[in-house]
Structures are given as C-alpha cells and as structure tokens.
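Reminder to self: tokens first, then the designed residues, so the page reads top to bottom the way the pipeline ran.
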C-alpha cells in the first residue's frame, strides 16, 4: 500500500490544561480513540458531552467523579461514561488514560 493510501494517520499531541496532554490515536466517524497523559496533581475538569466514553487506565492512579460519585482507579481498570454524564478526574500518580468515544469527538480534530 502506498503512503498516500495508508490507513494510519498521525495526530499531534495537544496540551489540554496544566499537566495534561491528549493525542488522537485513531478515528472514524463512528469511533475515536484518544490517549491522555497526566502529570501527578493534574486535573481533568468536570464536563459532559453527548458521546459515550470508555476509559482504560494504562498507568497511574486517578480519582474520577461521575455524576457526583467518586471512585479510585489504577492500571488495568476500565469503565464506561454514559452520554451527557458529568465527569472529571484528579491524577495522584502520573499516568495515561486511553479513551474511546462514540461517535467521534469532532472537536478533537
């Protein structure tokens, strides 16, 4: 397959806040995979969106808030965030989250 026809796309790493970066790993109109890297002490502020989100903790330790309930997660943990649920996190040990969104987050492109 020629490079012009390659299904692989390279997306830049983008700063999303103090101590947090994101990089789109893969996308299609129906699904997007995004890697978020957090420094210890960094936060993902409370927010919501219409997309269903799955989160896999590749590394680090986090406390998530999901519709007012808090829970701690670490490497290997995963969970689903329903459409429009208010959620955010605090990072206690530097790490990386792998998030899947359906449909794709066009605002991340």
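Designed residues (109 positions):
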């Amino acid at each position: 397959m020629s490079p012009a026809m390659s299904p692989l796309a390279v997306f830049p790493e983008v700063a999303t806040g103090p101590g947090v970066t994101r990089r789109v790993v893969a996308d299609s109109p129906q699904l997007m995979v995004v890697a978020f890297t957090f420094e210890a002490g960094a936060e993902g502020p409370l927010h919501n969106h219409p997309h269903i989100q799955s989160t896999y903790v590749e590394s680090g330790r986090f406390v998530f808030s999901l519709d007012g309930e808090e829970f701690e997660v670490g490497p290997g943990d995963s969970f689903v965030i329903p459409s429009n649920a208010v959620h955010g996190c605090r990072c206690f040990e530097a790490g990386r989250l792998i998030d899947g969104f359906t449909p794709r987050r066009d605002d991340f492109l």
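Residues 17-108 form a domain with the Jelly Rolls fold (CATH 2.60.120.10).
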